[in-house]
Amino acid sequence: MNPNPRQLTLLSVVQAKGTVTVDELADTLGVTLQTVRRDVQRLADEGLLARFHGGVRVPSSTTENLAHQQRESLNADGKQRIARQVAQAVPNDCSLILNIGTTTEAVARALLQHTGLRVITNNLNVASILSTNPRCEVIVVGGVVRGRDQGIVGEAAVDFIRQFKVDLALIGISGIESDGTLRDYDYREVKVAQTIISHAREVWLAADISKFNRPAMVEVATLSQIDRLFTDAQPPAPFPALLEEAQVRLDVAQA
Question: Taking residues 210-231, what's their average pLDDT?
Answer without folding.
Answer: 92
